[in-house]
């Protein structure tokens, strides 16, 4: 062994030197050169750092640098994340996305353009005017639809989600139809009110009659009884003096 090479190394090194750091690594660790000032030293890591990709060989596992525009990569020719200002597409870092694709500034990738999609139109609504369906001849009817897919930045914009058109109906009065329910409610309330009023009046009448009856009975109790008048025919009867 060279005098500058030591086998009692730390940090995962199998062999090392005071000047160059790790010269070889323990099994399954990756050897990578790190620049410190004007010199490079070897280090042994369990995985390659950002900007490097790992390659395993029978004698040594090495970390190699990705391309300059690539932040992380799987191999030198397949990037998994680009540096700022570049968009990832099929393992490559591009300044501008190809035709038919658009740049996604959130993921920094080139993605497919998504166009807006809308559902089918609903049936036309009843012909109305000012919220009523009667009492007029010309009105409007409406139909609507929903957005089922919103567009991406370069996608076709969404169409209108509602349409209105003129409509003609046979003119008819809507007082009975429109106010029928209200009139029935008012009539029912009036009947209930009248019944309640009659019930109260009957109760008052019964109470008044009962009070009058009780008053008469009390007055009769307070008046003195009249003496029975004598029978004049009995008083004038002849006295029997035959004895």
Automatic annotation (TrEMBL):
Cite the PROSITE patterns for this sequence: TSP1
Q: Subunit info?
A: Interacts with the extracellular domain of FZD8 and LRP6. It however does not form a ternary complex with FZD8 and LRP6. Interacts with WNT1. Binds heparin. Interacts with LGR4, LGR5 and LGR6.
Q: Which Pfam families match?
A: Furin-like_2 (PF15913), TSP1_spondin (PF19028)
Cellular component GO terms held in the UniProt record: extracellular region
Residue limits of the Spondin-like TSP1 domain?
116-171
Q: Which keywords accompany this UniProt record?
A: Disulfide bond, Glycoprotein, Heparin-binding, Repeat, Secreted, Sensory transduction, Signal, Wnt signaling pathway
Protein name listed in UniProt = R-spondin-3
């Amino acid at each position: 062994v060279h005098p500058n090479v030591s086998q009692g190394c730390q940090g995962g090194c199998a062999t090392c030197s005071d000047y160059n750091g790790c010269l070889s690594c323990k099994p399954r660790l990756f050897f990578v050169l790190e620049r410190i000032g004007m010199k490079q030293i070897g280090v042994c890591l369990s995985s390659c750092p950002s900007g490097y990709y790992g390659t395993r060989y029978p004698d040594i596992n090495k970390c190699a640098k990705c391309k300059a525009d690539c932040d992380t990569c799987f191999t030198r020719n397949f990037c998994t994340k680009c540096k700022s200002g570049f968009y990832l597409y099929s393992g490559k870092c591009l300044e501008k996305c190809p035709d038919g694709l658009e740049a996604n500034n959130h993921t920094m990738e080139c993605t497919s353009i998504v166009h807006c999609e809308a559902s089918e139109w609903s049936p036309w609504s009843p012909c109305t005017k000012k919220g009523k369906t009667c009492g007029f001849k010309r009105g409007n009817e409406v139909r609507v639809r929903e957005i089922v897919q919103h567009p991406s930045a370069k996608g076709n914009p969404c169409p209108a989600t509602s349409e209105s058109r003129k409509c003609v109906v046979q003119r008819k009065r809507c007082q009975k139809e429109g106010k029928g329910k209200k009139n029935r409610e008012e009539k029912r309330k009036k009947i209930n009110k009248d019944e309640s009023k009659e019930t109260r009046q009957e109760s008052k009448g019964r109470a008044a009659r009962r009070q009058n009856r009780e008053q008469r009975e009390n007055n009769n109790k307070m008046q003195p009884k009249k003496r029975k008048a004598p029978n004049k025919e009995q008083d004038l009867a002849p006295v029997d003096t035959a004895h």
